[in-house]
Amino acid sequence: MNHVTSGVRHDNLTFNHKCHIVMPDPSLYTPEEIAKLKPRVEAALDKIRPAIQMDGGDADLIDITPEGVAIVQLRGHCESCSLSPMTMKLGVQRLILEDVPEIRAVEQM
User: Fold this and answer.
1) pTM for the full predicted model
2) 104 lies in a domain?
3) Burial bucket for residue 52 (CB in 10 Å: 0-12, 13-18, 19+)
4) Number of domains in the chain
5) HSE of 51 in the Cβ direction (CA atoms, 13 Å)?
6) pLDDT, tens digit, 9 for 90 and up, residues 58-85
7) Terminal-to-terminal C-alpha distance of the chain
8) Buried-state track 54-79, b at ≥16 Cβ within 10 A, e below 16
9) 3-state helix/strand/coil string of 4-26
10) What is the domain extent for residue 41?
11) Contacts of 57 (CB under 8 A, 6+ apart)
């Protein structure tokens, strides 16, 4: 039996001073887990890459952080294109998050 004491951790949960449960931070991915996620993110990028390349650009996965953030760089014409934020948000980010739900966010480098 656990007794709830303000500000004390019980069973990996923290209770604040008002005895509300404060959820722990999401777990971090290990290097092995990141290595398994990278090919899946690359496969998602491969789906959108032809459309980006038709306009003279490209997209590269730079890294995945332990927090599950995919860092993507748009290259070529995308670097100077005023629509690159839309390409990132509506194309790249949407596709990666749909295909690899373990990824928590996508950021442009």
Assistant:
1) 0.74
2) yes
3) buried
4) 1
5) 11
6) 999 999 999 999 999 999 988 888 888 8
7) 49
8) eeebbbebeebeeebebebebeeebe
9) CCCCCEECCEEECCCCCEECCCC
10) 26-108
11) 74, 75, 76, 77, 78, 79, 81, 84, 87
